[in-house]
Amino acid sequence: MARVRGATASLAMVLLSNVAILAEAIPNWSAPRSWTPPRTAALQNLEKARGVSPLAIESLPTGPLPFVAISPCRLVDTRPSQGFTGAYGPPILLANAIRTFDLNSAPQCPGIPSTAQAYSLMFAVTETTGAPGDVRVFPTGQPVTNTSVLNWNFVGSAAIANTVIIAAGTNGSIDVLVAGFNTHLVIDINGYYASPVAATAKTVSVDCTQAQSIQAVINAEAGPLVVEIHGICQENVLVKQREITLRGADPNTDGIQGVVPQVPAVQFRYVDPGKIENLSISNGLGIGFSAVVSRVELLNSRIIGNGGDGISLNTTNAIATGLTVSQNQTWGARVGTASFFLCAECEFQGNQGFAAGAVNGGFLTLHDTVVTGVNGLTSSGNSYADLDCLTTESAHPCSLAATGRAARAFGNGTAAIYGNVDFTGQVASSDRGIIQLIGARQLATGQPGQGPSANSVSDLGRLSAGPDELDNQSQLFGTTNVSGFGRVILYEATTLAGTIQCGSAGDAWLDPTVIANPGSAVTGCEHGALPP
């Protein structure tokens, strides 16, 4: 089996006659009874490279999804003679161009739900204009893959087919890239993979522009529920002990605006699983979204302009993709007691407190995420928080531009900036807190009036800086004050672009390979000195 990002593809190609592959009576094929979403490289790296194995990782919502069979159906046929139209028909696929197919909206095969997370597909090519060539398939919104699911070495009207299970991308779509030469493409489906909840949930529409109520629907309906939200509903929503999806079409037009600031705009309690998709959430003076003892997905949504935290998690596992968390008056995301939060390709912008933080045993990791504002990450109370710009493969930018503190760790907390990334803002560790710069380059400390102008390591705190596994080097900038048995450790060609000043039993250690920029200095440190 060959792994494609977000897909598992069989490479047992089948060269058959046109009649067998392209017949009007579509042949069926076998598909696995279940499909497990690939465990992200992010989690694998956290366990292997950094020795982190929280129990929360093991209970993420990534278990096997059952196969839901349907009668074999033709989704796409680009040959003009077959009568397919729009996005599902002609023209021929051009070499080295990407074409997107929204599979759960294909008019030829109705009934494929928007909750499908993967599809069982057969791809066939025919009437090729040259050889060799190959077909590459990947979820819409993911980077182009270099692994093919089908290869051909013929010219003309022969046909070759292959079956593949591929994850659904943005809005249920997949992208197809043909490499080599132009070819006509046929795509058939014989089923999909969806959670049992998604497969059996009742779907109810709520039109907020007509004063309809989300809470009224939740209270009236029993069992798993999908609520399709249209417009902005002005109400606070509480979901307890349910399996639920709250879904809009566009977070710019669909969402929930709380009217009682004393409680969150949206609150999940004992929800497993829960999903929020394509919605905006705001709550005036209160918290935007809160989850307690729940398992949650947040997809392509906006948590904006809340008077409290944008997101508050307690004893909750949450995964988010394409999330925007901005202009919240305290923290953007607070990952509390025994909670896990992975946010990939997200945006944290202009939050007045810290962009995101972990407390009381929380675990926070931001992958390929942009963080801007006064403060970046914070971690305390035996927690872990990081910005990871290396582990996952994504075209989404990854950066941290703080005008105050970039990272703070105390109370046995750890905060890390990881991967090939430049960042601005002060770093501070105290009370056994740990700051890790792993392939990260500090370019500036806090701006006047917005944050400390010097890095700080105190009270048994520790700051370490070194390369990541791809040998991206770290840099420590400006003045770093070390005291109270704090320790600074620079290793393996880390650049020192400033001064380390030790006092009150603070100390530093610099590997002989450390690069000191002109004007850099180490003073008052018992074991630290600039390399010769």
Question: What would you say this structure looks like, in words?
Answer:
The protein is mostly beta strands and 532 residues long. The protein folds into two domains: 2-42 and 62-193; 331-532. The protein is 5% helix and 48% strand. The chain has five helices and 44 strands. The strands form three sheets. It has a 32-stranded parallel β-sheet that branches. Strands 1, 2, 3, 4, 5, 7, 10 and 12 form an eight-stranded antiparallel β-sheet that branches. Strand 1 (2-4) and strand 2 form a beta hairpin. The longest helix has 8 residues, at 41-48. It is globular. Mean pLDDT is 88; it is low at 1-19 and 48-61.
Write the topology of this structure.
Blueprint: E1 2-4, E2 7-9, E3 14-16, H1 18-22, E4 34-35, H2 41-48, H3 55-58, E5 65-77, E6 98-102, E7 118-128, E8 133-139, E9 150-152, E10 156-167, E11 173-179, E12 184-193, H4 196-200, E13 202-207, H5 214-220, E14 225-230, E15 232-234, E16 237-240, E17 244-247, E18 255-257, E19 266-269, E20 274-277, E21 280-282, E22 289-292, E23 295-299, E24 302-304, E25 311-314, E26 317-321, E27 324-326, E28 333-335, E29 340-344, E30 347-358, E31 363-367, E32 370-379, E33 384-388, E34 399-409, E35 414-429, E36 434-444, E37 455-457, E38 462-466, E39 475-482, E40 487-490, E41 495-502, E42 507-510, E43 515-516, E44 521-523
Parallel strand pairs: 13-14, 14-17, 15-18, 16-19, 17-20, 18-21, 19-22, 20-23, 21-24, 22-25, 23-26, 24-27, 25-28, 26-29, 27-30, 28-30, 29-31, 30-32, 31-33, 32-34, 33-35, 34-35, 35-36, 35-37, 36-38, 37-39, 38-40, 39-41, 40-42, 41-43, 41-44
Antiparallel strand pairs: 1-2, 2-10, 3-10, 4-5, 5-12, 6-11, 7-10, 7-12, 8-9, 8-11
